[in-house]
Amino acid sequence: MRAALRRQLDTQFKVRFNAALPMFNRLQMSKSEPSIWAACKTLRRLTFFIMIVPLEKEDSFALEIAWSENGPFPWDSIGMAPDLTLQRWRGRVGQLFVPPRDSIWELDPEYKRAGMRWLAAFERGKPAQEPSRDSVSNICQHLPSAINDVAKTIENHAIPYFFAIQKLCGSEVLA
Fold this sequence. Notes:
Layout: H1 3-20, E1 38-41, E2 47-54, E3 60-68, E4 88-92, E5 104-106, H2 109-123, H3 136-140, H4 143-169
Antiparallel strand pairs: 1-2, 2-3, 3-4, 3-5
């Protein structure tokens, strides 16, 4: 993701979710790591995480959620199926959907489609113009709807999952 777009994404998420999820505190792991923009600790060392993962080469991002019974972020737990009996878990929020699906928000979907058409033409040996990206200012117009969609996804999938873990562990903090 382009740096200017990443900054806008980060800023707009911060504004949207500081009021909506006051029990979560914003974290930044390092400049080279994706922004873990929210974490919530319970009384029993249970920690919930919500992470925006900007995709490196595309103007898109994924939403990951994670939890840990012992506090630190579960870097090594990605890829497993969600399981309430584990001591930690990390994955894309789409793994909680029935059926599971990928959860990537494309901010320039026409560029992605044009790239697929270009690749198909290239593979067939046909000349085609390589696609160009839209400007950051134009793409930023799509951010509010993407952020609203992510908010609904968190509300409908991540928070209920966190409640289930909380109940299983006998800890209370989310309200």
